[in-house]
Amino acid sequence: MPYSDAWANKVLDGTLGGTALSKPTPVEFRLYTVMPNADGTGGTEASYTGYAALSVTNNATNFPNATSRLKSNGTVLDYGTAGVGANQTIVGMAVWDPAGPTMMLFGTLATSKVVQEGDPVKFNIGDFDFLLPAS
Predict the structure, then answer these.
(1) Which domain holds residue 100?
(2) Of 9, 21, 60, 126, which is least packed with CB atoms within 10 Å of its CB?
């Protein structure tokens, strides 16, 4: 799952010569039927009845320590039950700092998730992997 353009710049500046990077809390997990661009524009967020971006406290319980450049969700990400208009295909997600708002990370799901009215919408522990490539 790559960094957005804005977040990549914050990481680089916070690492080398710029303003120190502060950890946003909470963060929001947003589901998409069409993925946004790397700059956070475009894309189509899920829009069925009952859907809202999922606010998650940014701590070690929800996001355990990374190993081998990989970080995963440590708790279930539960969006509840899909309501009216839920005949949508979720193709990916993005993690946002709601204070900006700034898209931080984004990526497609390994397998798209078809959501129908009445379906539980949740992602189990480890379903979202954030991998920083070595090169």
Answers:
(1) 5-14+23-121
(2) 60
